[in-house]
Design a protein that fits this description.
It is built from 2 helices and 5 strands. With 86 residues, it is an alpha+beta fold. A hairpin with a 5-residue loop joins strand 1 and strand 2. The longest helix has 7 residues. The structure holds FE2/S2 (inorganic) cluster.
Length: 86
């Protein structure tokens, strides 16, 4: 489990058995999605702070290392907190 924070300060707890996408949607924030498997790129979300645990099949090694963007349908968080531009 970890916490996703939004630019307005909203904090959303992400349980071990749910995706960031689902946790965000549960909180009433609409996030675009399509495949939900890390292959289409629809849910790509800018990362403001924190280190994503990338589990998608789209980003290059350079993009992963940059920590600038992530696919929130499958990717998770290394550590306790991610700040996302949602
Ligand atoms: Fe397709 Fe996330 S919804 S990559």
């Amino acid at each position: 489990p970890f916490t996703v924070e939004l630019p307005d300060g909203t904090e959303i707890a992400v349980a071990a058995d749910e995706s960031i996408l689902d946790a965000v949607a549960r909180s009433g924030i609409p996030a675009l999605n399509s495949c939900r498997e890390g292959v289409c790129g629809t849910c790509e979300t800018p990362v403001i702070d924190g280190v994503p645990d990338h589990r998608d099949h789209l980003l290059s090694d350079e993009e992963r290392a940059s920590n600038e963007t992530m696919m929130i349908c499958v990717s998770r968080c290394i550590g306790a907190r991610l700040v996302l531009d949602l």
